[in-house]
Amino acid sequence: METALLVKELRSEFAGPFELNLGAGACAAITGPSGSGKSLFLRMIADLDPNQGEVWLHGTERASLAAPEWRKRATYVSAESGWWADTVIEHFAVHSRSEVAALAARLGLHVDLLDASIARLSTGEKQRLSLVRALLPSPPVLLLDEPTGPLDEESVARVEALLQERMAAGTSILLVTHDPNQAERLGDQRYRMVAGHLETP
Amino acid sequence: MNPILLTPLDISIAASLIILDAVLSIWLRLRLHRQIAIAAARMVVQLVAIGYVLRFIFALNNPAATLLLILIMVLVAAREVAARPERRFKGHSNLVIGFISVGFATFVTSILALTTAIRPQPWFDPHYAIPLAGIILGNVLNSASLSLDSFLGTVRRERQAIEARLSLGETYREAIAPLVREAIRRGLLPIINQMSAAGIVTLPGIMTGQILAGLDPLEAVKYQILLMFLLSGGSGLSALAASYLAAWHLTDERQRLRLDRLQ
């Protein structure tokens, strides 16, 4: 399989060094106890925290790209979603309403939610909408931090179906999850994070 | 009309009002009499000292001495700006940001006023330069510290939102813009209030002082209007500088949000 994401000696003050080789359309699932550095690892790849080492995507090194350009290609979705405007739709590009609605519907979200104020949303709704926000521009790599943490079973199934569809289209996914079954279902490669180091079980 | 000069006796009579405060404090058990006494004593010592310093600097009439005194005043103001916000940067960054924003705003507005509006001969005459810089300093200190406090207070709370935007590929500049705007707004509010209230709710200090010193009210008013314009310009510059400097200091070459640089 063609390598999409290549991580070499990636480390920071708090975690690493990490090595990872993820194929196009593949999913690496990471489990492990809270505080072991799973989120830190994803944030380091997205270059949100200071780190050293190399990250390559389809033969392009991260350092050769401006940080925003890199993050458009390797998009991190945090476990707690962040919002900066009053209503949902303000968080999306101006003419993207129909695409947002279509994607939101696939995750079981009602179209009315697009005009709702952020303060009224449940954690699960926010989580799915933040996933929609990240999926919309179809980045080649998704760094998902517990994307289904607060969701019910049906919503989990919808999210997983959508992710699998994206993987079939060539999107590579780095998935942090607390659910071993989810890791089993989605992960082509499975890792366990222990005290800042990746281990293969 | 010459100003009415005060004698030590005149001041002693007014000082009896401080005694009144102290008696009140003891009588009502406010436990403030110590603080009142200390504050009053400090005020007298500080003001008499600055009176002598000013007299000395005026007599020297040396631009370097004038500049030095203003720099010291800026430094003291910068310390105030640095100390007021509840949240701080690690190291001395608060002080540096305070010094640059307050100093920059004070110098730009003072020099503008001295060279275009007031025009003493020479323009750096300490009789004009020092009091003017002092008034401007007091105001820009206020706006710089409010802006810095607003920015540092909200940035931690808004972390999720800022990082969500960064994660989606927005630039740091875009992601931080709402916080910078809010910080600048906060720094400008006091001067806007001051301008709206001037003459109705308050008789501004400079104007009152000049009237007491014997100046015609309309002349005093002209000075006050000039000052208000200077102060609003100075507030704008210092709020802008403090907010942008704080925002820049919280990011790096990879456009990350570096909250680790906060205490």
Short description:
The complex is a heterodimer of chains A (201) and B (263). Chain A is α/β, with parallel strands linked by helices. Chain A has one domain: Rossmann fold.
Keywords:
heterodimer, A: six-stranded mixed β-sheet, 6 helices, B: 263 residues, mainly alpha, 9 helices, 77% helix, 0% strand
Chain pair sharing the greatest interface = A-B, 24 and 22 residues
Total DSSP E strands of chain B? 0
Radius of gyration of chain A: 16 Å
- The domain count of chain A comes to 1
Helix fraction of chain B? Answer: over 70%
User: In percent terms, what proportion of residues of chain B is strand?
Assistant: under 5%
Low-confidence stretches of chain A: none
The residue fraction in helices of chain A comes out at 25-40%
Assembly type = heterodimer
Shape of chain B: globular
Low-pLDDT segments of chain B:
none
CATH architecture of chain A: 3-Layer(aba) Sandwich
Mean pLDDT of chain A: 94
Total strands of chain A: 10
Structural class of chain A: alpha/beta
Report on the architecture of this protein.
The complex is a heterodimer of chains A (201) and B (263). Chain A is α/β, with parallel strands linked by helices and 201 residues long. Chain A has helices at residues 38-45, 67-73, 97-106, 123-135, 153-168, 180-186, and strands spanning 3-11, 18-23, 27-31, 52-57, 60-61, 74-77, 141-145, 172-176, 189-194, 197-199. The mean pLDDT of chain A is 94. Chain B folds into two domains: 1-60, no CATH class; 62-261, no CATH class. In chain B, 77% of the residues lie in helices and 0% in strands. Chain B has nine helices and no strands. In chain B, helix 5 packs across helix 7. Chain B starts with 7 loop residues before the first helix and ends in a 14-residue tail after the last helix. Chains A and B meet through helix 2, strand 6 and helix 4 of A and helix 6 of B.
